[in-house]
Amino acid sequence: MTGAVMPVASGQPQGSERSQLWQPHLRMLGVAVLVILGLFWRDARDMVVTWWNISTYNHCLLILPILAWQVHQRWPELQKTTPHVWLPGLAWIALGSIAWLLGEAAGVSLARHLGLVMMLQGTVVALLGQKVAKGLLFVLFYSFFLVPFGEEFVPLLQTITADMSMLFLAWANIPAFIDGVFISTPTGYFEVAEACSGVKFLIAMIAYGALVSNICFRSWRRRALFMLMALTVPIIANGIRAFGTIYIAHHTSTDFATGFDHIFYGWFFFAFVLVLVMAIGWPFFDRKIDDALIDGDVLERSGARQSRFSVSRTVLATALIALAPVAWLSATSAQTSALPERIALPEIPGWEVVAYEPTYDWKPRFDGADHQLLGSYRRLSDGQTVDLAIAVFASQEDGREIVGYGQGAFDPDTEWAWSRNLPDVAQARAEQIVAPGPVVRDVLSYYRIGEKLTGSGSAVKLETLKLRLLGGSQHAVAFLVSAERDSEEGPRQKMIDFTKALGPIDKLADELAGLR
């Protein structure tokens, strides 16, 4: 008698069945991603242009291939899981759309780009489900490195690098004097410029450290320690590099030291620090090279709530959530009114307008401003001079904001450079900038937006955000009061005296904007 063994139904989809279940989810995921990229194509394009054109973010060009490689590494195990709709993913899409809305309203590209990435992440989670999201958790996290960030840390890194250089110079018995991010020695005058801040190297090392931590370590403690090393070693190494440049210049010449630094930094520095970090971390790697990054069987057995929402309805919900912030801004578009056709420098009691003759040409940068004025005033009582720059915007939008990188007291495309922040004056930001010579200037920056007068760029962004979200006039006016330093005490007091003579800046700003 011949017996036959019949397969036992397990209740779980097997090989070919699971493959068929994946297909509609992947198709709808592709549709949803195309919808989001279509709605926010300008932000996607701007991100790619930033990766390509700004050297600080060139490493982002590698993030997409790395993400694809990481998915490929996990794919054999992911195929053991069953995809399903998971509605919490829609909540993440909603958070991303809110981030984009806030960024668009305030004119903050970082928030817009972050919101776009979050919406794409949420789409993966909503359409593939909790089990797959667990398997792709690191990949989803790593996609945050697609967002260009870090420029806001440049002044801090410049200051840290300059302070470290001074410390090392003291150890080397080289006399030096520091003023902001400028260092003077008996053989030269050195600027710790933006390019010397080490920000591009630091951001790339953070992304690299996160990848190595996931691939080479299992222990979260070891991952945290490796990330700490990836963060601190580049900062310390950059301080040593800046000191080395000054040290070489002290014993040879400035031209030789500068040329050596460019070659060393461009070709060897990154590779050396990368090898150093890996060499330190190598003995502590605790993941074998052939270990799977995830366990598909464990993921499949994990509890996961199923949703009764269909895949197509989830795609529709995704599209509506992504569209909501665009529709909101269209409905609450800012009110605008015409500016005066011409504006003129104000008359100030006790001061007279004179020819503008700076030691080194200075002109603040306000791209997109509808009106710009720049003039010089002389006090009648003692002949002291102060310069006044005014910029008026009828409205703000991407590429024409009153505050932002490259806007304000100095134009980064000129020889002027930021040196340090000074103690603020009421309702104004105070800073020092330097040009070749050196020529040193103090600048007080006032901004009028809505009903607020402030020197804080963050406050300007928040007020702009409120007006864009709730509706209101987008008129914005900048007043920059400035003077060259001719003594150790600086021109601070005469600039304050000039501002008092100018009268209420908020009222004057409203008059220039045609609101009074």
Automatic annotation (TrEMBL):
Q: Which Pfam families match?
A: DUF3485, Exosortase_EpsH
Q: Where are the transmembrane segments?
A: 25-42, 54-72, 84-103, 110-129, 135-154, 166-185, 197-217, 224-244, 264-285, 311-331
GO BP annotations of the record are: proteolysis
Topology relative to the lipid bilayer, per the entry, is: Multi-pass membrane protein
Has keyword Transmembrane? yes
An example Gene Ontology molecular-function term: peptidase activity
**UniProtKB keywords:** Cell membrane, Hydrolase, Membrane, Protease, Transmembrane, Transmembrane helix
Write out the annotated subcellular location.
Cell membrane
Task: Indicate whether Cell inner membrane appears among the record's keywords.
Answer: no
Methanolan biosynthesis EpsI domain location is: 318-504
* Primary localization class, coarse: membrane
Q: Which GO terms describe its cellular component?
A: plasma membrane
Q: Which NCBIfam families match?
A: 8TM_EpsH (TIGR02602), EpsI_fam (TIGR02914), exo_archaeo (TIGR04178), exosort_XrtA (TIGR03109)
Name of this protein: Exosortase A
- The organism encoding this protein is Parasphingorhabdus marina DSM 22363
